Amino acid sequence: MAKTRQGKRTLDSYTIKGTNKSIKPGDCVLMRAPDSSNPPYVARVEGIEAGARGGVKVRVRWYYRPEESIGGRRQFHGAKEVFLSDHYDVQSADTIEGKCFVHSFKNYTRLDAVGNDDFFCRFEYRSATGSFVPDRIAVFCKCEMPYNPDDLMIQCESCYDWYHPSCIDMTVEDAKKIEHFFCQSCTTENGKETEKSHNGSKKSDMKVDPKRRRR
Q1: Residues near 86 by Cβ (< 8 Å), separated by ≥ 6?
Q2: pLDDT per position as a tens digit, 185-213
Q3: Strand 124-126 to strand 162-163: parallel, antiparallel, or no bridges (unpaired)?
Q4: CB neighbours of 195 closer than 8 A, spacing ≥ 6?
Q5: Over 60: is that where the pLDDT of 91 sits?
Q6: Which terminus of the chain faces fewer neighbouring Cβ atoms within 10 Å, N or C?
Q7: Is residue 111 scored above 60 in pLDDT?
Q8: 58 has which bridge partners?
Q9: Chain centroid, CA 177 distance in Å
Q10: How far apart are CA 32 and CA 201, in angstroms?
């Protein structure tokens, strides 16, 4: 705990009001929205400061949900996706509702279950211009869309590309039963046929899962 000018003190941590959970710089938190009908805001704590009169303020860097960005939510955005913005702010620590976890995209796809306090981030967002970093990411399937971890995809065992069942005239139920899958292009070129069984392809572990269950 270090003293700063004007009687303010920089704090190493802060215990969230009404709980026994503490936060520190670098942690992610849920902050109460002014309109109670809206979901809480997601932010990363950059600093914590106690004022001369006893109040505690937190300096935060906001995460934006897709619908809060210029351009809005798109098909490939996951339900728990947020963007790390360049928007900084100072807020009362009393508005913090709890801790949350913003995972890297890779780590999020490896979660066994997604809780209410789990989010993921794969973009930084420039709030003034509506631009993203990176401005390009890998696309998949015939629809050429980035991967949405909420959607089931299956992988061709020949070309290794990923496909949404709906894009290849297949139901999700049928896709879950496929043991081996070859896309139309590879089937035509190599004379291979798609085989079906009640077991999913072991090669599709990463993207064959349907929407993850909520804890």
Answers
A1: 61, 124, 125, 126, 127, 128
A2: 888 766 555 443 323 343 333 344 433 33
A3: unpaired
A4: 178, 179, 180
A5: yes
A6: N
A7: yes
A8: 48, 91
A9: 28
A10: 43
Q: What's the pTM value of the predicted model, to 2 decimals?
A: 0.80
Confirm if 64 and 127 have CB atoms less than 8 A apart: yes
Q: What is the dihedral of CA 188, 193, 199, 204, to 10 degrees?
A: -20
Report which of 6, 11, 19 is spatially closest to residue 53, judged by C-alpha positions. 6
Yes or no: say if 63 and 84 are a contact pair by the CB < 8 Å rule: yes
Least confident of 7-21, 48-62, 98-112, 191-205: 191-205
Please give the DSSP secondary-structure letter assigned to residue 157.
Answer: T
The mean of the pLDDT values for the chain is 86
Q: Rounded to whole angstroms, how far apart are CA atoms 163 and 172?
A: 11
Instruction: Give the pLDDT mean for 67-89.
Output: 96
Q: Is the sign of the CA dihedral 136, 137, 138, 140 positive or negative? A: negative
**Cα–Cα distance measured from residue 195 to residue 202, given in angstroms and rounded to the nearest whole number:** 14
